[in-house]
Structures are given as C-alpha cells and as structure tokens.
Amino acid sequence: MACKITKLSVAYDWDSCRERIVEFEKECEPNPWNTWFNLNLIFRKHYPGNTFWLVEISSGQTKKLIAAGIWRETISKRKFLKIKVLRTADVVAMRLPPFLMQKDHEEEACKMMVNALPEIARETGAHLMSLYQQYGMPMERWCNELFRRKVLFSKKILTYNPQIISPCNIDELITSRAKSRIRKIEISVRKLIKDKGDEPVYQHFTGSFNSQPELKEMWIDFQNIWHNSWQWSYLKEQDEKVFTATKEQLEETIDYLSRMGWLDISLLKINDIGIVGYICAVIDDRVWMVFSSYRKDYKKYAPGVNLFRKLQKDFQQQKKKVIDFGGEALDWKRKWANFEEPLLNIEYPIGGLQGKLWAFYQRFFGKKEVRIKKLHEIQSLNDYEQSKKS
Predict the structure, then answer these.
(1) What domains lie within the chain, and their CATH numbers?
(2) What pLDDT is attached to residue 279?
(3) What is the pLDDT of residue 375?
(4) Is the separation of the CB atoms in 140 and 346 below 8 Å?
(5) DSSP 312
C-alpha cells in the first residue's frame, strides 16, 4: 500500500491534483457532490485561505489508485479540548460517502484507509476526523471497518433525507396521507387558469446546454424565477460576500452539471412567464435534487407541488429508481417521500493526545441519544415572512 498526502491551500495545489482525481472519479460510484470540482468550488467560494488535505491510497501491487479523500482542516472546541479536526467539505444539501472508493473494491479501500490513519495524523497534525452528511452503504462499509479494527467512533443522526423509491404511484401515496390533497392541487391549477387566463405550460429537459439547447433558455427563465423568490430576498439581506459566494456557487454548479450531461431543469410557465422551477442532477437511474424556486407572488397557486407532481411522474416513466430530495427533512419533502434515509455525523480519533482524550471521553461520558439538528432556520416563505415581523 502507498499513501500520498497533499496539502491543498492555494489554487496551484488544487490544479496539480485535478487531472488524476477527476480520472479516478470515473472508477467510483457517481455522486455529484463528492467530486474534485464541487470540493474545489466550496474551497474557493466558502473557505478561501483554509487548508484542505488530499489523501490518496494506491494498491501496493498495481500502484493503482483505490481510494482518495479531501478534507478541510479546522480547529474545534470539544468540552475542555481544542482539537485539530479533518472534516468533510459539505453544505446542507449534500449526501457524501466517507471518501472516493474504487467501484467493486470498496472493502479493500476501507481497509487501506484505516491503515493510513496514523500517517494521516502525522502528516496533517490532526487529532480527529469528522464526516458529515454520511449515508447508505458507503457509510456502513466504513463504520464496519472502523468497528472491526477497534477504532472507537461516534455515529449520530444529523437529520433525515427524504426520498422517493420506485415503484411509487405519487397520487396514491399523497391520497393515502391526506385524501383531499390531490383535489386541492387540482383546484389550485383551475384557479391559476381562471386568474391568469391561460393554461400552465410544463417543460422538462435533461442533458447539457450543447445536447439540449432548450436548457439554456430554461436556465435563464429559472434565474428570473429565483430573482423574484423569497430565497433571493433573504439572500440579498445577507453579507455581500455570502450573497456573491452563494450566487456564483449555483451558477458554476449549473455549468458543471451541463458539462457532465447531468443537468435536469423543469419549469411551469404561464403567459410565457416562469413561475416555478426545479434543478436536478440526473445520473443513470438516480435523481439528485439541487435547487428549487418559485415566484413568491404565485404562492397561493401552490406552484411547487403542481410542478413536482408532473416531474415525479416523468421520472417514473423514465425508470428512475431513486429521487433524492437532498438536505434535511422539510415538511414539503416529507409529504412526497415514501422513504427517509438518516444522514449521519461520524467522528473518530486518528492520533495525538487530544485524540486519545476525545476517545476516553466518548467511551465513558459520550452522549448516547440521537441528535437531530435543524440545519436551516429559514426554510420557507412563511419562515422568512415571520422573521421580518420579529
């Protein structure tokens, strides 16, 4: 086994590893968040000047890359300790594996990464690793290997991620929870037609700006929707740096999804005006929701549920197996989902006195209860309007 550890603190460091990491991503389970592009984007827009670390694990026999992870260095206060932590570079909407693992060699990758933990601690000076937004089989494999190797770790539920798992008849699902729900959606459509004097037009395309020229015009329409949404009003009230970083992050993400051929945009328009839109990443038979927005002056017509009902039926016809809402379990997502997957925070010591003290504290005094955290204080137009009153 060979372990290569690289400090990423300036643009040159990131660019020097780009080609080999992007190439390795092709050999791993696809995930739109766990990519060199997305992690570099977070570095540039949210943590410029911070130190990140790249760990690459190669097979001793073939010298072939089998695992790679990028983590952000931070200092965290834990009770009476100040601990240097390597943590995932995440934002709320993400679902991340512990690190990139070569497909069909995940168990071997986990074993080698555990072997590398002492070297990671020596090179980085870190005492603890903290992995957020962890999910599903990648997380289970990693935790099983930590347990097998007797590495003490904590595993806490951060939030829940709603999903639609196929097959699913969305109208039957909604009706089973609230019999009048579908009728109310249809009433809102009739009211929209009556008030605006036109039928809403549904648009939905997947691919890239080159393969699907319609997506360029739809992205322009989506930006107009966003600029007339409560999210935009809230964002404009934030610090200018936060506003600029968030805006540029979405714009660059859209360009990246287009280049990869993963971009999916759906809209409802009336009188040639976009009123609601969803942006997703579609990879093989899985859908990852990225962003949604609607014009706040159209709230009474329930545009989001009207569009999502049509979109979900489209995905069912296209044989998509999983629609992943992303982020936390907001009420509107839970109403549409037929499964909720826990997203976890996993922590484990990797070295140093502080790491040993953390392990000691966890073993004898660590909290055992489940922790479910509200990640966003402002989650809807109602929340935003309420915050303005207070």
Answers:
(1) 2-159+344-365 (3.40.630.30), 167-320 (3.40.630)
(2) 97
(3) 46
(4) no
(5) H
